[in-house]
Amino acid sequence: MQSFDFNYQQFAEVFARLGKKFRLFGPKRVPGRGRFSDTDLITYADLQNPEDLETAEKSYLSPKSIVFPPDETTFYFTADQFTEPELSDNRETIVFLRPCDINGIERLDRIFLENGKVKDPYYQRRREKLHFFMIECRESFENCFCVAMNANRTDNFATAIRFAPEKVSVMIQNESFLEAFAEVGKKSDFVPEFVKKDSKAVNLPDVEDMPADIFSDSLWDEYDSRCIACGRCNTSCVTCSCFSTVDIFYPDSRNCGERRRVWDGCHLDGFTDMAGGHSFRKDKGDRMRFKTFHKIYDFRKRFSEDMCVGCGRCDDVCPEYISFSSCINKLSDRLSGGKKDEE
Amino acid sequence: MSLDINRKKVTKNAYRVTKRRNMTAIRVRVPGGHLDAEHLKTVAEIAQKFGDGNVHITIRQGFEIPNIPFEKMNEVNAALKPLLETLQCANGVVIENLDNGYPGAGMRNISACIGNRVCPFGNVDTSALAAKLEGQLFPNDFHVKIAVTGCPNDCIKAHMQDFGIIAICEPQFDYDSCIGCEACANTCRRKVTGAITMRNGKAVRDVRRCIGCGECVLACPTSAWTRNQTKFFRLVIMGRTGKKNPRLAVPFLNWVTEDVVMKVIKNTIPYIDKHILRCLAKEHIGYIVDRTGYDTFRREVLDGIELNSEAKVAKTLQWPGYDTVNDANMKSYNQRKV
Ligand code: SF4
Ligand code: SF4
Ligand code: SF4
Ligand code: SF4
Ligand code: SF4
Fold first, then answer.
1. Which of B127, B200, B228 best tests the A interface by mutation, with the highest count of A CBs <10 A?
2. Secondary structure (H, E, C), B90-126
3. Which residues contact residue B30 at a Cβ distance below 8 angstroms, ignoring those fewer than 6 apart?
4. Which residues of A make CB contacts under 8 Å with B?
5. Pairing mode of beta strands B250-256, B312-313
6. Chain B interface, best mutation among A37, A230, A261, by max B CB count within 10 A
7. pLDDT tens over chain B, length 338 residues
8. What is the largest CA-CA distance in chain A?
9. Strands B163-168 and B146-149
10. For residue B151, what is the nearest residue in chain A, using CA coordinates?
11. A312 lines ligand 1 (CB under 6 A)
């Protein structure tokens, strides 16, 4: 393990050098493309220049699109044949991301690669190309609770980077990246730190002690009227992995088209629609309960870790100010026989 | 001593003859209806020191301070100086002598809805645009009413103005990000014009139905819809209240840039100058357009302006309004034969 310091110009040199060989993907500020006019969108996207990399603010959308795009064609079909498309970009990919998001992609690995006998090939072929360049997080952002979710730390990275005002420090774990950095940088003893304390205390319930009647508890009722089913908490979440499979037919053809998988989410209308028109989680409170249990209960039972990594994006983006972390706390309070809220 | 004042000069100085003999009222201009709260103190001081302590908030977002004796005008003008400096001069208005109060009152205060400084629907900073217009147009003796609104909800009632500037946005679509949730289509259908339909799981916008409100951008959970960084406007014109023929403004230009809006409004000044009836005290621009006809108006105000490629110009204008003389329709209700 070796570490180096760079000024921003030197870092730009390394960046350019890496860009010749790798696809570079990271948080990017897109001016004026935020939800409201004259606000920026911070999303994950391909990076052309080091200035594209947004290191100061948390992104609105997560890095999951690099392994799990919002809309992916799995195959093209004609009457009796089908073809799987090649990836349009076959390069190895460097992803700049924070510790919670590295943990988040590991959660996606559980779902797509370790859940049952078959590894998801569409996920796998993208996932294999990734090299994590961890952006160090020493202080949590608003709404973050990665410490509570045990997702504030990771050692799963090729390099770890600290973006300080005057310099960039990099620790290299994956030796294959050493050369690109060592030629430009000055040796240092940089070791990344991790967030130690969440800005808000979040208490997780004991999953071994989950009484059945909590599923029908009045705790969930307030969300019936509060949640508008916009789906942002799902689309922004790094660990939401649900999709719908849709077949589309090309205009003027009865039997040519393609099959796609498209992000879906438990808060969206239509998510539980079935043939015959039945839909089993119509109430938004039921959807909130379903999400909560998936994030901090069912997943743990299966994989011995929580699905949620506490990135806090669901709280950041909810237009109705529904706080998922507060919901977890309410659940814990309720289970410990504490507060029953008045409503 | 009897008061001897030049009424026309006084009016031009933003004072008015009021119901009470020897008493006037000053109208304070607040372009865009947005001001540092500190200035409220100046307004309060003028009202308390020279008036009767009352302030009226006008429909155009200015202040009218009543019951000031005419002989206090010079002192009031001196007290107005900090307001003129920040609300007018800082926006580019040239005022020769800042101790003499407002140099004009024909062009009314340019008002604005709260816009994107606060409102999530706002497509632009309306107050900033109003301030910019103030800088370009004031002082001006012609009677013109202008307002800027941040989106087609039109909270400032741009449709009641001679020039109603409605900020709109062109939603741009990122095909790969759309997950077919239909939120945009539903919101556009329920709240707007139904410009979005779904085709093969993707949103498709009918550009002829789209009014540029931006609701789809607000609704999209994946940012597949975002706003074009060029800002567009719809200019609705010649709406009015008044004693003869109240009517709503109608679209004259659509999908024009800020630059075009500014130039068109500037071009209106020589148009008014050329056609106004000087025998009237202050002929209102709407009546001038009624007289010259739309074609003449359009030709003269678009003269020399290069329209942006997206711009659309109205072929004809028909204002929804009514003539106040309409006694044929108005009958005594109790004697009505059923
Ligand atoms: S549930 Fe919320 S906090 Fe947890 S991973 Fe998803 S977006 Fe982040
Ligand atoms: S972001 Fe908020 S309102 Fe939207 S679906 Fe999620 S909880 Fe409901
Ligand atoms: S007109 Fe639009 S931008 Fe202005 S206050 Fe109303 S809703 Fe907001
Ligand atoms: S901008 Fe408004 S009218 Fe146009 S598509 Fe979007 S919601 Fe519909
Ligand atoms: S709201 Fe966004 S994701 Fe949903 S259908 Fe419309 S464009 Fe697609």
1. B200
2. HHCCCCCCCCCCCCCCCCCCCEECCHHHCCCCCCCCH
3. B61, B62, B63, B87, B109
4. 30-38, 41, 43, 60-61, 69-71, 230-232, 234-236, 246, 248-249, 260, 262-264, 268
5. antiparallel
6. A37
7. 689 999 999 999 999 999 999 999 999 999 999 999 999 999 999 999 999 999 999 999 999 999 999 999 999 999 999 999 999 999 999 999 999 999 999 899 999 999 999 999 999 999 999 999 999 999 999 999 999 999 999 999 999 999 999 999 999 999 999 999 999 999 999 999 999 999 999 999 999 999 999 999 999 999 999 999 999 999 999 999 999 999 999 999 999 999 999 999 999 999 999 999 999 878 999 999 999 999 999 999 999 999 999 999 999 999 999 999 877 788 888 766 65
8. 66
9. parallel
10. A37
11. yes
Report how far residue B37's alpha carbon sits from residue B22's, in angstroms, rounded to the nearest whole number: 31
The verdict on residue A335 lying in a domain is no
Domain that holds residue A52: 2-65+87-188
Q: Where do the structural domains in chain B lie, given as residue ranges?
A: 7-100, 111-168+231-313, 171-227
CATH number for the segment(s) B7-100: 3.90.480.20
- Residue range B111-168+231-313 in CATH 1.25.40.10: no
Record the tokens describing residue A135, joined without a space.
Answer: 């952006």
Does any domain span residue A298?
Answer: no
Question: What is the CA angle B326-B328-B331, rounded to 5?
Answer: 105
Which fold, B171-227?
Answer: Alpha-Beta Plaits (3.30.70)
Number of domains in chain A: 1
**ipTM value for the complex:** 0.94
Residue B293 makes CB contacts below 8 A (sequence gap 6+) with: none
What are residue A14's DSSP bridge partners?
A: none
Q: Is A99 in the pocket of ligand 1 (CB under 6 A)?
A: no
Domain membership of residue A45 (yes or no) is yes
pTM over 0.90: yes
Residue in the structure block whose two tokens are 């999709």: A243
Return the ∠ at Cα A149 (arms to A2 and A161), rounded to 5°: 20
Residue A34 lies in a domain: yes
Cα-based distances in Å from B246 to A70, A112, A196, B202: 52, 66, 66, 44
Among all chains, which residue has been given the structure tokens 């999400």?
A: A291
